[in-house]
Amino acid sequence: MTEITPPPRPRPSQMEDTMRVPKLATGLCVAMATAVPAYAQTPQLRVLTYDSFVSDWGPGPAVEAAFEATCACDLVFESAGDGAAMLARLMLTGARTEADVVLGLDTNLTAAAAASGLIAPHGMSPALDLPIAWNDPLFLPFDWGWFAFVYDVNRTPEPPASFADLIASDLSVVIQDPRSSTPGLGLLMWVEAAFGDQSAAIWQGLAPRILTVTPGWSEAYGLFLEGEADMVLSYTTSPAYHLIAEDDASKAAAPFAEGHYMQVEVAGIVAGSDQPELAQDFMAFMVSDAFQSLIATTNWMYPAVTPEGGLPAGFETLHRPETSLLFSGDDAALLRDEALTEWRDALAR
Known about the structure:
Elements: H1 14-40, E1 44-49, H2 60-71, E2 74-79, H3 83-93, E3 101-106, H4 110-115, E4 119-120, E5 140-152, H5 163-168, E6 173-176, H6 182-195, H7 199-206, E7 210-214, H8 217-225, E8 231-235, H9 238-245, E9 251-253, E10 260-270, H10 276-286, H11 289-295, E11 302-303, E12 324-325, H12 329-348
Parallel strand pairs: 1-2, 1-3, 6-7, 6-8, 10-12
Antiparallel strand pairs: 3-10, 4-10, 5-8, 5-9, 5-10, 5-11
Helix pairs in contact: 6-12, 7-12
């Protein structure tokens, strides 16, 4: 999703002033009458999303150009940190929000967003290429992937193959805050899905390995690239960026024996939108080839609909977990508070 002052002129008489006022007012009215229709012909669609989506290297700029070429509108992206922070902003503003579409929540957050009453049904049933069935009437996926710990093969030639291995190692990791970040919350759900009642013990074991906790993904990944940590919580698809964009094969995702937790990112129409038809058009555009063909090499995730040209060369080298873990939106909402408590308690020690 980046200055000769004219010579003084004689002052007109008071009568001339009086005569000039109606003319001036008439001129202003004509100008306004001319300008208003021109402005009204360019409706504005406001999309609330996360920071990396609208960054220079993210899909936002290309999505904006492609949609505006078809909609005769002004597409405006507004960013609000990471996904969880975005939901918090939406809930805080409530019905006063100026957003028409919210893009970048995931299945760990959809239950809370749905319960708010702020999301309207999208009314669509496109053919999606997801590893799971999808029938949510409020939220429509635009990409998906698996969470993973990413490492540098030169710095860490023998990566951990499980959470137990990571706990037993002397490696440092950077993770994201689950209260503001969807990857951070995804890690909470990953631990819950893999270990259930033993989750608290896993967090206690992981705590010494955690170098720091960042508000969002961008900060965490930046620290890893700067060499501040051995591993970073990211995605199995993250190494594709380095391979394709930088011709660098030194980054990899560590396969974990417990399996990997999935993320499905979604968008929804804000119920109070004053541009409902335009919002609907954007949702349809989102699952079109024009949008989906951008995802793999800008958002570095799997597209929700495989593009006509398929996935880019290099994606075939990525780790694809044999075991996928995922809670329903309702189950994730029920588990969230207890999981957060376990996480806070472990990191506070």
